[in-house]
Structure formats: C-alpha cells, structure tokens
Amino acid sequence: MKLKKADIFFWGIFVVILGFFLYLWYENRTEDPNAQAEKVDSIQHHLHGLFYDQEKGLVAATHAGIMQYDKDGWVKISPERDYMGFAITDRTWYSSGHPPASSNEPNPLGLIQSTDKGKTWSTIDFAGESDFHHLAASHRTGTLYVYNQQPNQKMQVGLYYSTDQGKNWTKSTLSGVEATEVWMVKADPNKSNTVALLAKEGLYLSNDTGNTFWKVPVSAFISAMDISFAGSLWAATYEESPRLLKLESNGEIKKEIPLSYSSKEDPIQYITVHPQNENDISFATASTKIYQTKDGGKTWTELSEG
C-alpha cells in the first residue's frame, strides 16, 4: 500500500515528538536501574533525615544512600548518592544532594523525586544549580517547603513553598523570624499552611505558609524538632543532658519522654514520631547513633551505634 504524502508527514512529526519526549525522560532520570537492596551493619555516614514511612517503616537519608530499618537490621534501598534534604508524602519522596564521584549526573542534584519509595529518582528542577539541605513536605496535602541557602535562577535566599510538586514556588515573607542560620524545616503532615523553622536562635511556628511566625518560648537550647501526624510539636533540648519533649505551641511542656541515652557531647539531631502511634518514637544523634522506643520511652533499643 502506497502511503500518501500527508500520512508520511504525520508519522514523521509523530516520530520527532516521541523522540523529543524520550530524550527529556532520559535527561531527567537520575535512577540506577541496577540498584538493589543492600544490607548494612550500622549507619556510619552522616545523617540528613530520619522519617517513618507508612509502608517502609523507619528510613534514614544518609551520605551514602537511603537506609530502611527492618526486622533484620538496616538495608540500603536507594542508589548510592548523598541525599541531603529529605522529605516524604504519602505518594512521593523528595530529596537533593550530590551524586557519587563516578556518576555523570549533574552536581548538585537539584530537587529530585521518587514515586517508588527510593528505588528510582527523577529530576524536578534546579539540577546543577542547588543543593537543598532543608526540605519539608506536608504528608497528606503534598505542599513542599524549602529553605534556600544560595540564590539560583528562580529563588533568592529564604523560605519557599510549592503546592504543585515543585513546579512553581512562592516566597514566604518570614515576618517574626530573627535568625542568622536556619537548621531545620518541618511541615505539619495534615495542614499545608503550618510550618516550623529551627534556628540557632530558637524554634519558630507559622500557620500561614511561613509569612508570619511566632517564637516558641523555650529557654533551653533546641537541637531537633518534629511535627507529628497528631499535630503535636516535639523538641529535643540540650543542656547538661538531652531531653525529649512534647510541647504546646506556647512552649509549655505537655509530656517528657524518659531517655536511656545521655551524652554531653552528642546531642539529638533528628526526631521522628510514628504516624499511627505517638509512643513509637525514634531519634538520631549527631554521631549517627539511632534509638527507638515503642512504649513511650519506658524501654529503648539502639538501632545504630554510629
């Protein structure tokens, strides 16, 4: 059958468009198709985040990959990269950071995402431009927050949020924040407008996507914080020894969790509270020691000795 010129033209255009989209897919993927789960004895790399995922359980973002804790110990479930910022929603994991030295991926990675629990990753934006150390995500609403430390083509220094999975960003005004350096950002799992900042100067809360904040009046030095699925504010304080506290937004202590861990040189750096059970809490220290309680602090298990 002889093809008409119009048919040839149509199929030619189709092939060109298909090739273009395949090229975009290839350029934007940051996955390692050969990556397999790898058992590790203990986490000995820098930690950049600690979270409970409802399917995977406890996961940790590290300098060498994302680790999952299961009944047999720690397992690496991602390609090897330095996952700096790390945040999760019910459908998507987000991160940033750096590829390994042997990789041809852009460095820094920009903002990347995984829809299969860390096995494969694709680029959203900012590849080769930005390394976002401070990411947060509202688990059920999907709103993303990033505190940008270095200007790029779309962002100045400051707090930004996105309601469309990182395609577009709005700058928050940060009124009420007096901080020389931001250390951590956390989003309320259920409320897209609620976000917390931890800085050297203290803990700040906002209910309007970071436009206005108030400082939570806690006299002790706060080394880590989290917002649980129940909407509770959690903080690790550090004076002579660490304390783990459940706080009111006005700074009053609702509950203190007993700790079996105590160190003057190794403060708590990350806290995470289980989505369905606030008695199930894990924390990591600056030296990557990781502890877990499932009974509200009555007993603790060391998951990583650092």
List keywords for this structure.
five-stranded antiparallel beta sheet, 306 residues, mainly beta, four-stranded antiparallel beta sheet, Methylamine Dehydrogenase, Chain H
Explained architecture:
- There is one protein chain.
- This protein is 8% helix and 41% strand.
- It has 306 residues and is mostly beta strands.
- The chain has a single domain, classed as Methylamine Dehydrogenase, Chain H.
- It is globular.
- The model is unreliable at 19-30 (pLDDT under 50).
Largest sheet: 5 strands, antiparallel
Q: In CATH, what is the homologous superfamily? A: YVTN repeat-like/Quinoprotein amine dehydrogenase
Helix share bin: under 10%
CATH fold field value:
Methylamine Dehydrogenase, Chain H
Q: Name the structural class.
A: mainly beta
Radius of gyration: 21 Å
SS element count, helices: 1
Strand order of the biggest β-sheet: 1-5-4-3-2
- Proportion of residues in β-strands: 35-45%
CATH architecture: 7 Propeller
**What is the number of independent domains?**
1
Shape: globular
Following the backbone from N to C, one meets helices and strands in this order, namely HEEEEEEEEEEEEEEEEEEEEEEEEE
According to CATH, what is the class?
A: Mainly Beta
What's the average pLDDT?
Answer: 90
List segments where confidence is low: pLDDT < 50 over at least 5 consecutive residues. Answer: 19-30
